[in-house]
Structure formats: structure tokens, C-alpha cells
Specification:
This protein is of the alpha/beta class. The protein is about 40% helix and about 20% strand. The chain has helices at about 1-35, 35-70, 90-100, 110-120, 200-220, 275-290, and strands at about 80, 80-85, 105-110, 125-135, 140-145, 150-155, 160-165, 170, 180-185, 230-235, 250, 255-260, 300. Helix 5 (about 200-220) links the parallel strand 9 (about 180-185) and strand 10. The longest helix has about 35 residues, at about 35-70.
Length: about 325
């Protein structure tokens, strides 16, 4: 009996000893888990995790916004400028000037960009009726291009162009057009580019040059007579300087004088050959001499009528 009781008591003491050790281990673990540096480590780790989550969300929004801006249906597209209806005589340097004035080679394809480009191009004296339209691929530019027909020297090494309507144009380099110089126009009568020259000399000279261009197109388009005209002297228009000299004199490239005479429409007043006769005589001479005015005679007289007509008494 005593032996059995002693065994049972040993078992109980062993059981309670094991249980006591488990409680001490749990307490020690709880003590370790509750130490200040472990708590701080947990807090720092939690802050780091949430910071990473926040950064990820922020980056996600940034990339989403960039995608919408560049790939989304409402993205703002860009494209080049396209000139519509460019004439043959418009040279590469003029086109480059248009591009630079417009503001570059790539443009936003929207109505605001079209309005801005149209306003900038208005500064070019040789463009008018400008219309700019934004399309899905390009910014289209349509305009009327003023073609120079003559050049005027306003001071040393300073030239301007005049078009058929006497508009003053900026003197960009030209290689495809041969322009005669108009002499005898006072420099102060030439306005800045974009304005109209109201000088009577300019009007009378351009009328003759336009008629010569029309005759060239009809009679000799391959080798125009106008290409051999160097200048047209208007200094004695209406015989303001000398009553015995011709009103208007054209000079060929070799400085052969061509005595035209009175301004267009004024031949009868001064008893000269009419304008049709003058053109006929000039172009007959040109054709008979192998389509050239150069090196043939000392001068070409156009004022004397070929057919005598009754003179007023």
C-alpha cells in the first residue's frame, strides 16, 4: 500500500513539475514578445509595409494617367504641317520660312493649334486668305500665295518684291522666277512688306510686265521674252523729266534699250503706236532673231506706228 502511494505521488509530482515548466516557458516567451525593441520592430515593419503599399498605389495612378494621356481615346495627338495647293514657283526656302514662322515641324492636332498657326502665318506678306484645319493626322494649311512680278531697290543692298496687285513682299531668295527691276520709284513711296505701293510708276510698270507675261504664255512659253528683260525705267513717266525722251524704257539683259513710250492706254494721247502694235513689233523682232533680244541692235523702237493713221488737226 505504501509503495503504491509513493508511486502515485511521484507521478503527480512529475506531472505538476512538467506543467510548471510549461508555464515558465510560456511566461518567458511572453516576456520576450512583450519587450520594447520587439514592439518597435513590429511597428517599423508595419509602417514600411504601408509605405510600400502607398507608393505602389501612387505609381499605379501615375502610370494610369500616362496611359490615358498617350493611349486613351481622349489623348492629344500631334502631327506635321501640310501645305495644300502649293504653286510651282514656291521655292524650298519659302516653304522653310513658312514652317519656321508656324512654330516648328510638329503641332497639336486641335482647333486651338490651328488658330495659333493661322495667326502666325498672317505675318508673312506673301500669304493671304489663310485657312488652317486640324485633321487626325496633319495640320492642313491652305492659302493664296502672292507671286512676285517685279523687284524694287529701296536702298543699297535692300530689295523688295511687288506682286501683280502692287503688294509689297519680303525679298526671299528666288531662282525659279526672273524678275525685272522697276527703276524710278521713290523709295519713300514703298511701304513696308504687306502694304500696297500706290506709286503711279509702279502701276504703269506692272501693267506692261503683266502684258508681256501673257504674251509669253501664248507665243513663247519655253523661252519667254520676259526672261531677257533686266529692268524697266519709269523715271520719265508722262515726260516729267524730259519731253524729248521716251516715257518708259525697257532694258534687255545686255542693256539694249527698248523704247516703249507712253503708259498702257495712253499711246493715242501722244500719237504713238497702240499697245497691240507695240507688242506685235516686239515679239516679231524676238522671233525673227532666234528668240533673243540680245546683241542684235543698238535699240528697239516701238513708238512709231507701222500703219499711218489720220492725225487730228
Amino acid at each position: 500500500m505504501k509503495k503504491r502511494d509513493s508511486r502515485q505521488s511521484e507521478k503527480l509530482s512529475g506531472f505538476f513539475g512538467w506543467f510548471s515548466r510549461r508555464k515558465e516557458t510560456a511566461r518567458s516567451r511572453a516576456g520576450v514578445a512583450g519587450s520594447p525593441w520587439v514592439v518597435r520592430l513590429k511597428v517599423a515593419f508595419a509602417i514600411l509595409v504601408w509605405a510600400c503599399v502607398g507608393a505602389g498605389i501612387t505609381m499605379g495612378f501615375i502610370y494610369l494617367e500616362r496611359y490615358i494621356r498617350t493611349q486613351g481615346p481622349s489623348a492629344q495627338k500631334t502631327g506635321p504641317m501640310e501645305l495644300i495647293g502649293v504653286p510651282d514657283w514656291l521655292e524650298p526656302k519659302w516653304i522653310e520660312t513658312i514652317t519656321q514662322t508656324a512654330g516648328g515641324r510638329q503641332f497639336h492636332l486641335d482647333e486651338q493649334s490651328a488658330r495659333i498657326v493661322a495667326e502666325k502665318l498672317k505675318n508673312l506678306s506673301w500669304m493671304e486668305q489663310i485657312r488652317v484645319k486640324a485633321t487626325p493626322t496633319v495640320l492642313q494649311v491652305q492659302a493664296v500665295f502672292r507671286k512676285p512680278v517685279a523687284r524694287v531697290k529701296i536702298r543699297e543692298n535692300r530689295w523688295v518684291y511687288l506682286d501683280a496687285e502692287r503688294a509689297v513682299l519680303d525679298p526671299l531668295p528666288l531662282e525659279s522666277l526672273t524678275l525685272a527691276e522697276i527703276r524710278g520709284i521713290a523709295a519713300e513711296s514703298i511701304p513696308p512688306p504687306g502694304g500696297l505701293c500706290h506709286a503711279e510708276e509702279a502701276d504703269a510698270a506692272i501693267q506692261i510686265l503683266k502684258k508681256l507675261e501673257q504674251m509669253d504664255q501664248r507665243c513663247c512659253p519655253d523661252k519667254p521674252l520676259l526672261s531677257e528683260i533686266d529692268s524697266i525705267d519709269m523715271s520719265n513717266l508722262a515726260k516729267r523729266k524730259n519731253t524729248s525722251k521716251p516715257h518708259i524704257i525697257l532694258f534687255a539683259k545686255d542693256q539694249t534699250p527698248i523704247y516703249w513710250g507712253a503708259a498702257w492706254g495712253k499711246a493715242a494721247v501722244y500719237l504713238e503706236a497702240d499697245e497691240a502694235e507695240k507688242l506685235t513689233m516686239l515679239y516679231n523682232f524676238y522671233a525673227q532673231n532666234g528668240n533673243t533680244l540680245l546683241g542684235k541692235v543698238k535699240y528697239i523702237e516701238l513708238r512709231t506706228p507701222v500703219i499711218e493713221r489720220p492725225r487730228p488737226r
